[in-house]
Amino acid sequence: MSDRHVNDAELKSLALSGDAAFWGHLITRSRQAGSFSELFFLSALRKKAKLPSIESVPPKLRLALIGGYNLYPLHELVAHLLAVRGIECEHFLGEYDNFVSEILDSSSPLYAFKPDIAFILPNASHCRFSGSLLDAVEHQREAAVNAAKHLLNLAQTFVERSDAAVILANLPLPGELDLGSFRSRTLGADWSFRKAVNLELGLRAPAEVQICDVEFLSARRGISAAADARAWYESKQLGSPDFLVDVAQELSHLIASRRQSPKKVLAIDLDHTLWGGVIAEDGVEGIELGDSSPRGEAFKAFQKYLLTLSERGVLLAVCSKNDHARAIEVFETHPEMVLRLEHFAAFKANWDPKSDNLQRIADELRVGMESFVFADDNPAEIEIVRQFQPQVEGVLLGPDPAEFIGRLQAGRHFEPRNVTEEDLERTAQYRQERRRTELAASVTDMPAYLASLEMRGTIKEFDSLDLPRIAQLIARSNQFNLTTVRRSETEIRGLLKRQDYLCFTMRLEDRFGESGLISVVIAKIEGDACVLDTWLMSCRVLKRQVEDEIMNEIFRLAKVAGCTKARGIYLPTAKNGIVAGIYEEFGFVRTEGSATRIKFELDVEKYQTRSTKIRITRRAYEAG
Asked: Is 70 in a helix, a strand, or coil?
């Protein structure tokens, strides 16, 4: 029984009978719900249903909602949508239109609640230009900048006082016809002024303040459909009941995405996916692609969209049942192809099961299967991959190429919190890695191979320019990560000023190119001990002696800091087994341990510095 065929009566029967199938249907329908009546019905059913048994209950998320509106029933909708994502909440609801005082008063109930995340929803009607429509545009623009700065300063004040994360909503635009076309000729009009404020909010927001794009949500629903004047006058609501669902869906997505990184790899089919037709039967001349037909134009537009994903740092991979040589021919010779071979980090076109090829791609790229999205036009292939590689997210593109972009975007798998220079170079880095792997396969002398790479490393203390990439690595790294302790960019920024922490990164380059910032270490000085709080590394540089240079640096800094011993912590997870024995490899002795936490120790004087083939051009906390 598929979700789209489960009506309300059937879903209610499943809920009340305790049928385990209820939860799958509930999750799917809740995430797709676009009306208040449906979502409220689903929320009520969830509360009545028999909860599935779970071994442990994670701590509840402490979520504060504050702003210039009545926040009931918005908080109920958010609570339900988070619950179906596996996140239970405790809520704090601010008083109506009192969020400024709640933030500025450090003794307010808001701070006593000790939230993990605060959602700030400013009242759009308060955001108006107070001068004349004919005032100089510079004066109007300055007022918009000041309005944005006021909201951002409030958000930052809250972050500094609470150490909580902030999601700040921007402003829906008014839908009135007042002023006619003149509204676009002055920033003094409510429409133009709010647009200017929203633009400044987005451009000026620091990393610790995430924007909830209410303006976009309102435009997507339709400004008139999103607004509800009666709801405002009767109960001070943000908008129409259905628009509350849009905001709740977006907020729950933003909160959940803080706990789960975007996907890294998009594996894509070829026939009927990147072009129309079957290359083995139709040949290069016979496939449908390009501007000569509507379907051909749609396939080309889909390729253009995939190229934008690649330029943002998403790795593209081909996973197709096909003749390899014929598939390659299309990329090399068809004049309408937007994507070329250099845009793909991996290419598997053969007659093996696609689930097997996905595993091979994961092994080549050294990323986990949970990082993959697989897109195909064939529902049978999607189902087979779901059965044999359940960690892979499947996207059924369907038969109409005009819908491909929308169907892929609907999953929201590749939305970045930020974009770093390393993201923009990621595909090139993986192509370089393939060349390194090919070279390694051709030699039998590993030291000679490492020497031939001509590796150069830079080890540097944390600085503000690297913070986005450091935060990204800490959030995403799972395999070579000793503790998987997650930290926000705000928390990492706070470490820059701490004298009791030693924090450094390492960059690596060789004759094939730059690998970028590939390792992060956070160590805390506790008395005479240097304690490794965080050590993570990109799996792309494994077995290249980076681990040795990192450990050399840890003990060098420990000695400089006057420490007599170094302590390591390993917190086992389902994904970081590859580093389970790394401390012992460096001579550490296990001092205590359990199933969830193992500690190691080594005297600083006993550590033997390791020789490597990496030339270190700079070390942390050294001048120059």
From this structure: coil
